[in-house]
Amino acid sequence: MSQATLHVLQTCPFSWKVRGLIEHLGLDVDEVQVNAMRTKKELAFTNGWNKVPVFTDNDGEVVVDSTPIMVYIDEKYNDGVLSDNSGNERYDSMLAHVDEAWKRATIPILYGSLGAALSTTRRVSKLEKFGFISRRLYAWAGFPIMWGIIARKRVKKDGRTPKKLWHDLLTEYTSSFDGHAYFGGVEPNLVDFAAFGYMRSISPFKQFKLLEEHELGMKWYKSMERQLK
Questions:
Q1: 53-91 as b/e: b if 16+ CB within 10 A
Q2: Are strands 29-33 and 4-8 parallel, antiparallel or unpaired?
Q3: pTM of the model
Q4: What domains can you pick out in the chain, each with its CATH number?
Q5: pLDDT digit string (tens) for 1-18?
Q6: Torsion angle in degrees (nearest 10) through CA of 192, 165, 51, 1
């Protein structure tokens, strides 16, 4: 059998979701960083998916899309302990909400102003695998696109500042714990790891300090960090 692999982009929130689960379970998985400008070629084995993350288990089974990957890993390597509440309305609705609302909140916090967008694209250009020319093009030409075409529209449509949006999400999430440390109760479940992945994807950027101002959110986040091996 070959070693399991996870194809990622370093700054992709979906990749961070799966990485956290793998770290928590202490799995021996070879992480392969994909060239951000050549995903179609480097992920050709996915038969048209062409997005990260992609998980290939040690039997050669290829699984795509972050949440299905997390469920697959939990079931195969952890007896489904973290996703055993699947089918429960509270669990299913929160997982769907996190996968939609938290996903959409990552772009505004990272690219919601011209200065933030410039800072983010320059940071991404250093963290991701680019060619010599494409690295510089992304660093200086990417921020007007990310800010002007994508992030600004999302911020305007939502009506909240990116900080307010994230604080509202964290307040809503931590309020659902019913007095426990995690959404999963005494121990985190797959929903916690999904939410943690989205939030953790912002940690390499200076905008993370805006999230650190949410006391309960950071208490949960640091508890999740201690779950990693």
A1: bbbbbeeeeebbbbbebbbbbbebbbeeebbbbeeeeeb
A2: parallel
A3: 0.90
A4: 4-78 (3.40.30.10), 89-225 (1.20.1050.10)
A5: 579 999 998 889 999 999
A6: -20
